[in-house]
Design a protein that fits this description.
Layout (H helix, E strand, L loop, with lengths): L1 E6 L3 H7 L2 H8 L4 E6 L12 E3 L7 E3 L1 H15 L4 E11 L2 H8 L3 E6 L7 H6 L3 E4 L9 H12 L32 E2 L2 E2 L9 H19 L1 H5 L1
Parallel strand pairs: 1-2, 1-6, 5-6, 5-7
Antiparallel strand pairs: 3-4, 8-9
Helix pairs in contact: 1-6, 4-6
Bound molecules: adenine.
Length: 226
């Protein structure tokens, strides 16, 4: 899978994308992440990428031309995208279902807004999906893009060591994960539930399922209803 990301501050994502699971995914050639600096497509000597917004409100807006040049150049180099996604607070709220959907794509392009956003005409012409990572406003789309790449990357077969572990993540079946424990058996007078030490795989599965149900009912009744 290839994920291209257009941003005015790609450095913000560099370290995050080159560590841990995403690093391994790239080393195994299961995932290619290509950071594109919008400034490289800026206009004039100053490589301008933003301008004042029409209508008099405060805040700069990313201009059409640099974004369009960046997108067209990527398409002409590598071919069309399966999805062109704009990260924005007014997009569809991101969830595991969308992560699953996107993990089945071959090529996606993420566009990070900055300042007050991007010119609406770019959204009209190129963007196929608009995604928000929650009901709060970030300074730019970079953190949101990192959230998408991480959640999608871990779903690509072969990326996680234990292939089943993404399948048992919270939310995969609208349930939160059960509590987990590691050694020692007793810590601070608190014991690991005896069933987990029993070695009885079937009973352990039942316990975990019930713990998931209870946790979801208690903490996320909205998910439980589903
Ligand atoms: N850009 C600014 N705020 C955002 C949000 N909540 N989700 C995605 N992109 C954003």
């Amino acid at each position: 899978m290839q994920i291209d990301i257009i941003s005015v501050v790609p450095q913000l994502m560099e370290s995050f994308l080159n560590h841990s699971i995403l690093k391994r995914a790239q080393e195994k050639n299961l995932l290619t992440i290509n950071l594109v600096n919008l400034r490289d497509y800026g206009i004039g000597n100053y490589k301008q990428v933003d301008d004042y917004q029409y209508g008099g409100d405060a805040g700069m807006v990313l201009m059409c031309e640099p974004l369009s040049n960046a997108i067209e150049s990527l398409i002409s180099k590598n071919g069309a995208y399966d999805e062109i996604i704009f990260l924005c607070p007014d997009g569809k709220v991101y969830d595991q279902k969308t992560a699953n959907f996107l993990s089945l794509k071959n090529r996606i392009l993420l566009i990070c807004g900055h300042y007050k956003g991007i010119d609406e005409r770019i959204r009209e012409k190129y963007v196929t999906l608009e995604i928000s990572i929650g009901d709060y406003v970030l300074s730019g789309g970079e953190l949101a893009a990192a959230v998408l790449v991480d959640s999608i990357g871990r779903l690509i077969p072969g990326v996680l060591n234990n292939e089943t572990s993404a399948l048992t993540d919270s939310f995969q079946d609208n349930l939160l994960s059960p509590p987990v424990y590691t050694r020692p058996e007793i810590w601070d007078d608190q014991k690991v539930p005896a069933i987990l030490l029993s070695g009885n795989a079937k009973e352990i599965d039942t316990w975990k399922y019930e713990a998931s149900l209870n946790r979801t009912k208690e903490r996320r009744p909205d998910l439980f209803e589903k």
